[in-house]
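@channel anyone free to eyeball this complex?
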Amino acid sequence: MSNDIQAQVVVIGAGPGGYTAAFRAADLGLNVVLVEKYSTLGGVCLNVGCIPSKALLHSAKVIDEAKSMESHGVSFGDPSIDIDKIREYKEGVVGQLTKGLGGMAKMRKVKVVQGVAKFTSPNTLAIEGNDEVSNINFENCIIAAGSRVVQLPFLPEDDRIIDSTGALELKDVPENMLVIGGGIIGLEMATVYRALGSKISIVEMFDQLIPAADKDVVKVLHRYVKKQYESIMLETSVTKVEAKDDGLWVTFEGKKAPKEPQRYDKILSAVGRRPNGDLLDAGKAGVNVDERGFIAVDKQLRTNVPHIYAIGDLVGQPMLAHKATHEAHVAAEVIAGKKHAFEPQCIPSVAYTDPEIAWVGLTEKEAKEKGIDYGVGTFPWAASGRAIGAGRTEGFAKSIYDKSNNRIIGAAIVGINAGEIIGEAGLAIEMGCDAEDIALTVHAHPTLSESLAFSAEAYEGTCTDLP
Ligand code: FAD
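replying in thread with the prediction:
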């Protein structure tokens, strides 16, 4: 009996990019095979990324909010933390979603093959680790193999040194933990462990946390978390880690480096992710992969081999789930003969820290680099009735405009629920709204979302040549 199967479309990887592409292609009437290394669908996002981290962050948020209620005249006492139950809850959330995906694949008659796919020719994949399927012959392929954690070469092999996946396993709550990397993932995990009781130190090589966001926005987060963490060492790097019986001894170098090695119970390394393009034998299909593992694609998500497409983390930044799912739709629709293209004006980024930071479109830094003559409107949450009521006035909203036509080109919000509010700014950029459109849109009062409209009004106030 032959172990070879045929597919009009084969998708490699069942993360948000891969499962979305597979489902869309099946909905459009194509015969689809989805290959996934692991036994559950959902990829990094559902299993060890977006979803479990947000489930844990919710617990962190409630713990912090309950504590802060004392100043409102409501006391709950110290939280009693059952780490096994927190882990169980998180696993339940992940299980519910990944099982749901399995059901959706079945419903659409997408054939799921568990195993590792590698190219053997421009129309064939070999499958490792599956007894029933050895090869898949395909007409079209969508590569959605995602990314993996970057490992620092000098870190010793030790159970006490973890990456984001290890942190999400939540095996214990260390007394003190060093987070290497002040980017979104490191800071989100720091938020969780700090709320559960760990003393957190953060080391970041750049001169600000979340280096991709504007300095003024990050400053608010920095000021807020500074009181909660043991130390935040900017412009500093780790040069050596020694795993000893009494702990992990870390040597630092840079502006804020302690003179002597410091001892930690745990280290979370969160220094970034690298694309998986280099693990697929893509050369055997003639697909070009660059030295970092990225696969270049055109606006229709085609690689240099026209019937092979690529989407998600392995085609470039930003490595975000919502970028992957949108690319997935386009790739599947192009294969089905539609003339679609991936041409978003903007893709939002959110750090689900406390306070949250969200931005979309151009940052001020990027607008400057592009030489755009831009103006900014800001609205401080110290003037927002809703933020004052919540006792969380540290935030602000800012919107950025091209002065030549007053159209919005970017926005950033720092404060509670910033990630929920930023969507409106994304829509405004996509629709080509100008400051007046946003300012004249009636927003509900009192909401935090009003602050975006007030920032547009503030920008208008700076314009002397408005009709
Ligand atoms: P992945 O989700 O990486 O999926 C790729 C899949 O391909 C994997 O399941 C892998 O097993 C499989 N695979 C790889 N190679 C093969 C092969 N040869 N054969 C078969 N299968 C293969 N993004 C957000 O937008 N919001 C967030 O809040 C967010 N939080 C995050 C938190 C953490 C801790 C992490 C690590 C990431 C987070 N991300 C977040 C990023 C997000 O998870 C990724 O951008 C997203 O998962 C990328 O989707 P993808 O489909 O490209 O690939």
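from a first look: The longest strand covers residues 4-12.
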